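Hello,

Following up on my earlier ticket. Below are the two sequence lines again, exactly as submitted.
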Amino acid sequence: MSTTAPSPDHILQTGLAFWASKTLLSAVEMEVFTELARGPESLESLTGRLGLHPRSSRDFLDALVALGFLERQDGAYSNTPSTNLFLDKHKPSYVGGILEMANRRLYGHWNNLTAALRTGKPQSESPGEEDFFGALYADPSRLKTFLRAMTGISRGANITIASQFPWAKYKSAADCGTAQGDLIVQVALKNPHLAGIGFDLPEVAPIFEEHVEANGLSSRVRFISGNFFADPLPHVDVIMMGHILHDWNLEEKKLLIRKAYEALPEGGAFIAYDALIDDDRSKNAFGLLMSLNMLIESPGGFDYTGADCVAWMKEAGFRETRVEHLVGPDSMTIGIK
Amino acid sequence: MSTTAPSPDHILQTGLAFWASKTLLSAVEMEVFTELARGPESLESLTGRLGLHPRSSRDFLDALVALGFLERQDGAYSNTPSTNLFLDKHKPSYVGGILEMANRRLYGHWNNLTAALRTGKPQSESPGEEDFFGALYADPSRLKTFLRAMTGISRGANITIASQFPWAKYKSAADCGTAQGDLIVQVALKNPHLAGIGFDLPEVAPIFEEHVEANGLSSRVRFISGNFFADPLPHVDVIMMGHILHDWNLEEKKLLIRKAYEALPEGGAFIAYDALIDDDRSKNAFGLLMSLNMLIESPGGFDYTGADCVAWMKEAGFRETRVEHLVGPDSMTIGIK
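Thanks for your patience. The regenerated structure is below:
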């Protein structure tokens, strides 16, 4: 084998990438980064405080160093600037909710990927359950984990939309399927002239209101409870749905787009963002993998391309559409009525 | 958030990297690459032949394209040069054994990483079993998966050792804990003057002999059965152990090194290779994660640095030692008696 021969490295690295993944997930579960946000600590001190067994505590912490999530100097471990900002539970910038959910639920469910691919059926707690969100919202501890997870995976996109979209043209906005409300919160923080609404099932109200209040927005951002399939959407200038459309099957997706169209005034805008698959379906691996995650977690959800979403919006009547990249794997599709 | 602010991308990508990992593992399990080694196929044909459900077969195959494991042209999927060479079960270059083992065993066991870190105890099938290899070798189907897996993860290092080590100086070599025998096979293929021995438990003999015969080496490479703790090692010029030392606890590691020393003549060489952790324990993440894998899979195993191994070899009496990088994460420590 010469040095120009193909190498199995990429294959083996990807095939065993769950080692690095699960190591980070366990570190988040054990709150390694929250602990170290207090200051650097020695191996002995961390082993004791985190309840690690000495057999492998050093390997575990050094693996986090080698993976770029911790630093180690003169035997003392500390957070990197990134993990200090994003994985300390006590900071509002915490994005670990999605990793807590991945650790508690998704990692195990994905062990059944082959069965999901063979049957087309979800592999979550109750594989037969048809009403995924109904069951989720009925369980307060699952709901809280889920809503925090959604904030974790959406923060970057939310902040980008808050500055990238031409908000000066509009006076009001509603985030439908708002969860903790981080999208409407970020948009309202950046645009003091806007009145905002978070729309979601009633169970979400207290969690939403806590987040809005923590951001000092209670006077401008309010909660409206409703079911976006059964009830009309709020009448506002801009309707947003972040990581919503991909949860549903094709008919449900089209229904939500039609309801957004109906609720908007002439000239109003609908913003739908997701981890859009590139139109050639060959580059944005994350979008495609997210679609497999929807297979595993939901009865009919799937991710889609910008071209798919543009076609659905045109079919619903939107006269002008465009796709804009946000951050990481996320892009938004915008429809103007 | 300005563009210079820290981003949670690396955190989220690593935390969800098990998606890509499990997608590849399921593809290996369903023999996608073995099927496509016959030639390019359309989505419809592949969906039928692989027994995929139409809900997500396109997402699954396109995810493999986006991850770099398949190509797609004019709607026909085909292997990449790499997956065609390394993931087609019918080729001797197949390295998928390690991924089959990862898919059947390791992925699920790693779901218990937190418990392993808290208790120091393995999390494999029978967490209490003290005799890991005894149980493994007693189950022919587990044994075959394991031995093929070892060839998959060792092939690159084996080929490198066959050309990188100064074999001209030596007449005979034994690979202790030889498994399928790929190390001694590659060394013998490249060095026609050498007589080779594979040393392992008796259950391994037929699998070893099949591999040696397939490579046309039956006249120069033979099997000796034995237990490397209980029995003396073969008297040869070079003793090798590939991915062996990391399976055992410190006392067992030192015993194996001492036994290699005792079996060698003056001037003989001992080669031990593993995914060596860098001496600073901050760079070779794979070696550190492999050590966590040993925590999960074995009662006392752990990976180690080149400096660790040099110290153990010197303690055993080797007069000269050196560490040489092989390929990917693997390096070898050489001791000259």
